[in-house]
Amino acid sequence: MESNKHLFNVSPLIKLTLLCLYSALLIPLPFLPQSPAWMAVALVLGAILLWGALGEQVVVTDQGIELRYPWWISTWLRSGWVLPWEEIASLKPRTTGQGGIVYYLLDRSGNSYLLPMRMAGFSRFVGLLQERTAIDTRDVRPLAQPWMYFILLGFSLCLLLFDGFTILGLRHG
Predict the structure, then answer these.
(1) Residues 148, 152: Cα–Cα separation, whole Å
(2) Domain count within the chain
């Protein structure tokens, strides 16, 4: 076991928010009239896939950075990556379609790796990145701030509450 190993998981707030939003938007669908019988199975499978994608982990060691997913996600849907410290050449900001900024790590060969930004302890991760590469990370901020997820979580919970009332009304109406 390495002495200098740091593990970063997706923030619990982000996991909870995205799972609540998924549920709020899709749980009512199987209860609609003329909804296909397989809809509920598809929604459960979608929730399992979302849970797997939210299982993303970033591992920082003395050798480099590794982005990994649960084995069943990396086998079938999305593989992670490993980037040794000495291969990291720069950090490149890119504007998103919604006006936010994401960052890519560029290696010496010109390959780019999306910097994970949904993790708990993001500022600690960025500090480790700066310490190990000497890349200036002072201006690097997460794409979305926690207050944005709290607002989205609040609206998702309200929507779930209304979904519940609607579903009960359909079943008793």
Answers:
(1) 6
(2) 1
Question: Taking a C-beta distance cutoff of 8 angstroms, is the pair 118, 14 a contact?
Answer: yes
Residue 74 domain boundaries: 6-172
Tokens of 140: 């690097």
pLDDT over 70 at 154, yes or no: yes
Q: Give pTM, 2 decimals.
A: 0.85
Closest C-alpha among 155, 144, 25, 55 to residue 96: 144
Report long-range pairs for 103-106 (Cβ below 8 Å, ≥24 apart). 103/140, 105/65
**Sequence-ordered list of residues with C-beta below 8 angstroms from that of 63, at least 6 positions apart, any chain:** 84, 85
Q: Dihedral of CA 36/30/156/9: which sign?
A: negative
Instruction: Report how far residue 122's alpha carbon sits from residue 168's, in angstroms, rounded to the nearest whole number.
Output: 41
Mean predicted lDDT score pLDDT of the chain: 91
